[in-house]
Amino acid sequence: TRKVILDVDTGTDDAVAIMLAALHPDLDLTAVTTVNGNVPLSATTANTLRVLDAIGRPDIPVHPGLAHPIARRGFPGQTHFERDSDRDMHGSALPLPAPVTAARDESAVEFLLHTLRDATERVTLVPVGPLSNIATVLAADPGVREAVDEIVIMGGAHAYGNVTPSAEFNIWADPEAAAMVLSAGFPRLTLVPLDATHQALVTRPDCAKLAGLGTAAGRAAADLITRRIDAYSAGHGVHAPDSAPVHDAVCVAYLVRPEVITTRPVRVEVETSGALTVGRTVMDVRPNATGEPNASVAFGARAEVLTELLLETFSGPAAR
Ligand code: BDR
Ligand code: CA
């Protein structure tokens, strides 16, 4: 099995990603670190604990990380473009029972530093929120990147953003952190931007099938994704009606079904200034691109692969 650490700002799609990583037999979710993002750190942490309790995995440690971006007093200025993107569908508490398990006392940064420094087996790191924790760890010890066999990031956008026309929320929320992570020299970096996740849409009939599995994970996934579909159908979405992307789950699906996305090597840099473009991932997709690629970027994704994997993984005995 592949050792995986998820870094999350739980939210509804982070929750599906956590369940997929925790329940898939080929993955060993050794820990989850939390960060400020969709909702404040206290809420992303409590939501993460709710999810792990709901699927009977309170043994997976949760380490709270940064409560704010690394270089700003908060998110980039309230641009006249800003809208809630995916955030307002998360609410502060997920539709799951209150957590009974407590987060660990050790911070995400301390946990990641010693875990990666002492790693005997390389770890797959999957950040699906703002990159504040990952950037801080790199600032403390850039060498830890060698303990990461692959970093798979949900973030960025080439065609159009969600929080602004230019920017996708995870990158926009902490652009300096994203710039540091993308230029840190990870041996293998896969970036899953909106261009891909907007193609892997989950529908209401899919949710009915998930609910029909009769498992805690199936029910939770159905509730969480239905909440997303309701929000997108209320005019937030740019997608086919009665469907929604589950961005973060695509990153975990890729670990066990790499064919869920199609990628190409691209040089990606992050705009950290400019009122209209702050947080934009600038991708050199020119035929005569000059920059040295620093990421495998997903431009395509297959909804049927994601949905099939969710149904398969959430129906198993582990899904209770
Ligand atoms: C990203 O932002 C959040 O809304 C989701 O959890 C996802 O990680 C999509 O832009
Ligand atoms: Ca997220």
UniProtKB/TrEMBL annotation:
One of its GO terms (molecular function) is uridine nucleosidase activity. GO terms for cellular component: cytosol. The keyword Hydrolase applies. Keywords: Glycosidase, Hydrolase. Residues 4-304 form the Inosine/uridine-preferring nucleoside hydrolase domain. One of its GO terms (biological process) is purine nucleoside catabolic process. InterPro entries: I/U_nuclsd_hydro_CS (IPR015910), Inosine/uridine_hydrolase_dom (IPR001910), IUNH (IPR023186), Ribo_hydro-like (IPR036452). It comes from the Bacteria. SUPFAM superfamilies: Nucleoside hydrolase. This is Pyrimidine-specific ribonucleoside hydrolase RihA. It comes from Amycolatopsis methanolica 239.
